[in-house]
Each structure stands twice: as structure tokens, then as C-alpha cells.
Automatic annotation (TrEMBL):
Location of the Nitroreductase domain: 15-191
Domain of life: Bacteria
Protein name: Nitroreductase family protein
Recorded coiled-coil stretches: none
GO molecular function terms listed in the Swiss-Prot or TrEMBL record: oxidoreductase activity
Length: 219
């Protein structure tokens, strides 16, 4: 079965696939075969040597969603305690305040989101050299983004999240994910969106961050 798609150009799809939190429709169920259709598209993504070491854990059972949401919230608390690379970010500006409010909202309703998806890749990066780390992440993150695009094109939305990874071991225990031989790549709440009119994000101009031929030279 192929689910209907929005009338969006490819450029619009790429430019308007936002992190959706406050506009997730918590009241409308998401059919399993629709999720499977999106995962089928996700796994068209490139991956190292086509080994397809990926797995997709879909949580749509009410009790398990509640357990997962509780772990997500403890991960968020840990993030606040220990911001890591985010410690340099100024969170006082209006944009960051808006994002923070939206992030808080998602955490508070996560148990109500119809489906939660955790992409998992076989392997671990600990102790691995740069090649190993890049190969592992590069073999799951493009598929995760494909998944978000496939959702968006069908009127659904998600938000790329990572805070639960502060509690990855607890999540693995909760869901039966092999804890020492796999890596969770993130957590994606999935729901239909309330409306589908998402806008382009404000980003710095490409020319400011593009380097031609040499890091320092202008041209
Ligand atoms: C690696 C990564 C980690 C993120 N972690 C979280 C998260 O834990 N919780 C959350 O609500 N949003 C998270 N986000 C979403 C970002 O806040 C969002 O992408 C950013 O604010 C830009 O908004 P946009 O995606 O709508 O363009 C994450 C995004 C990325 C790419």
C-alpha cells in the first residue's frame, strides 16, 4: 500500500522538513504499514559497504511509550546537569528560548505521541578510530534523515532527538536492545502534523561557510 503524499517539490521537501514538536497530532493514530513504508524509504540511504547493519525499533504500545518517555525525561535532566558541547551556547536569545520551550513541551507529551522510533546500528564507536566512528554514524544517520523526509512527504512529522542517549543503557534494558554490541542513533517521535505548512529555517548563508579550494583563501 502506498500512502498519499503532499504536493511538495523536492526542494520544498528538503527545505521545510522541520523539527515538529508542538504541531504533532497526538490524537490521530499512525498505521504500522505507513511506518513500514517510511522505513522502506529510509533504508534506501547509503551505508558502509551496503552491510545494512541497521534496525528500527518502533514503540507504539501505550505502556512502553510511557516507559520510554520517562527515560527520555531523565536523559533531558542529565543534559541540563551536564550540557557537554552545548555549554558554550547562549540560551537567552528569543530563538533559543522558543526552541527550549518546544523541547520541554515534547518531553512533557512524549508518552502521548502515537509512535516513537529508535534507529539502532550494530557496532560501537568506543575506542574506534575516526574512520570507524565516521563509518558507523554514516551508516545510520542518512537513513534517519530519509525517514524524516518520508514522514514529511506523507503529512507526518518528527523531531531529531538525542537527549535520551544520556540514558542509552536504561533504554536498551527497557526495550531489549543488545546493550554492548549496538548503538542507538537517536529517538524520533512520530505523528501526523497539525497542518502541513512548514517554512524554511533561518540559517546562515552558504557562502559564509563554504570554502573554495582552501580553508583560509577567499576564492
Ligand atoms: C543531533 C541532533 C540532536 C538533537 N537533539 C534534540 C533533542 O534531544 N530534543 C529535541 O527536542 N530536539 C533535538 N534536536 C532538534 C534541534 O533542536 C533542531 O534541529 C534545531 O533547533 C533546528 O530546528 P529545525 O530542525 O526545525 O530546523 C536535535 C537535532 C539534531 C540534529
Amino acid at each position: 500500500m502506498s500512502y498519499p503524499q503532499l504536493d511538495l517539490s523536492l526542494d520544498d521537501l528538503l527545505a521545510t522538513t522541520r523539527s515538529v514538536r508542538k504541531r504533532l497530532d497526538l490524537s490521530r493514530p499512525v498505521p504500522r504499514d505507513l511506518l513500514t513504508e517510511c522505513i522502506e524509504l529510509a533504508i534506501q540511504a547509503p551505508n558502509g559497504s551496503n552491510q545494512q547493519f541497521w534496525h528500527w525499533l518502533v514503540i507504539d504500545d501505550e505502556r512502553t511509550r510511557a516507559d520510554v518517555a520517562a527515560i527520555y525525561r531523565t536523559g533531558m535532566a542529565a543534559q541540563v546537569e551536564s550540557p557537554g558541547w552545548m555549554s558554550g551556547i547562549d540560551f537567552t536569545g528569543p530563538d533559543q528560548q522558543r526552541i527550549a520551550g518546544s523541547v520541554e513541551y515534547l518531553a512533557s507529551v512524549l508518552h502521548e505521541v502515537p509512535a516513537i522510533v529508535i534507529p539502532v546500528i550494530e557496532g560501537r564507536v568506543e575506542g574506534g578510530d575516526l574512520f570507524t566512528q565516521a563509518s558507523l554514524w554514516g551508516s545510520i544517520l542518512p537513513a534517519a534523515w530519509n525517514f524524516m523526509l518520508a514522514l514529511r512527504s506523507r503529512g507526518l512529522g518528527s523531531a531529531w532527538t538525542t537527549v535520551h542517549l544520556h540514558r542509552a543503557a536504561e533504554m536498551a534494558e527497557c526495550l531489549g536492545i543488545p546493550p554492548t554490541s549496538t548503538t542507538q542513533a537517536g529517538l524520533f517521535p512520530v505523528a501526523y502534523t497539525l497542518g502541513s505548512d512548514f517554512k524554511r529555517a533561518r540559517r546562515m548563508p552558504a557562502e559564509d561557510i563554504t570554502h573554495w579550494n582552501h580553508w583560509r583563501k577567499g576564492s
